[in-house]
Design brief:
The strands form three sheets. The chain has a four-stranded mixed sheet with strand order 2-1-6-7, sandwiched between helices. It contains four helices and nine strands, in the order βαββααββββββα. It is globular. The chain is α+β, with helices and mostly antiparallel strands.
Length: 162
């Protein structure tokens, strides 16, 4: 990675046990991100597997569950601070336990999600909606690739517009 650039770290969250068409999209996204990492445009890529839902009280009982809840809390803060909407995350969805008839709140997770960090700070979460425009994970990867290609240009070939 260019030492003058701000280091970009990406976490990709991938739902396990998806239908085949979603699995193809997941593989495509992973390939694109790994290519950006191999080219040095992403300093670090982490791929994390999650399910379709998480029950916070149960998740609190495990280290991995607490880590995921911490990330989700960070995403919620980013959502509030960036005036974006993370509609793909259903934050408090009641589900009834068929055995006990007890209702619990779960968080429904998207098939794919991407968190982008620059200098350690969360800069973007996808999928999201901002100002009426939906940004998918693939849109953010395209943006990362475009940014990477722009910094690949030799300095003398850049045009400065004032």
């Amino acid at each position: 990675m260019d030492s003058t650039a701000n280091p970009v770290r990406v976490e990709l969250f991938v739902r396990s046990l998806c239908p085949e068409d979603a699995t193809h999209q997941q593989n495509y996204v992973i390939d694109q991100l790994q290519a950006l990492e191999d080219a040095g445009h992403i300093e670090e890529l982490s791929i994390l597997i999650w399910g379709s839902r998480i029950e916070p009280r149960l998740a609190e009982r495990t280290a991995e569950g607490r880590k995921l809840l911490e990330r989700l809390s960070m995403f919620e803060r980013w959502e509030r601070e960036s005036d974006a909407s993370l509609d793909a995350f259903d934050w408090q969805h009641p589900v009834t336990n068929m055995v006990s008839d007890e209702s619990v709140n779960v968080i429904t997770l998207p098939t794919l999600a991407l968190a982008e960090y620059v200098d350690g700070d969360l800069q973007h979460v996808a999928p999201c909606t901002r100002d009426g425009t939906a940004y998918r994970v693939t849109d953010r990867i395209s943006r990362l690739a475009d940014t990477a290609h722009a910094t690949d240009e030799p300095e003398h070939e850049r045009t400065v517009v004032q």
